[in-house]
Specification:
Length: about 90
């Protein structure tokens, strides 16, 4: 941007010079915002807080954990379909 500005100062800021400087500044702001958003997302994703939902990618779950995850997922999809039996137990029990 500095080189562009000094070149435009020598050529008295023609229309093309103004447009190219505007485009350069616009691209700089866009790239800076992308880097900022990326840094914020990386900061949030790499927190040491316990996860709110179970993650299944890259982890080998036990049979009990898979079954529990399936029940939780089915309940979250349709919480009104509890599948209550005669004793009042739901499918989660």
């Amino acid at each position: 941007m500095i080189i562009q500005s000094s070149n435009n100062n020598r050529s008295k800021w023609t229309g093309l010079g103004r447009f190219s400087m505007f485009l350069t500044i616009l691209m700089f702001i866009k790239n800076l915002s992308f880097i900022t958003i990326y840094a914020i997302r990386r900061f949030i994703d790499n927190k040491d807080d316990p996860p709110m939902r179970p993650r299944t990618s890259g982890q080998s779950l036990s049979k009990v954990e898979k079954e529990a995850f399936g029940h939780i997922q089915s309940y979250l999809i349709d919480p009104h379909d509890d599948g209550i039996d005669n004793d009042g137990n739901t499918t989660v029990h």
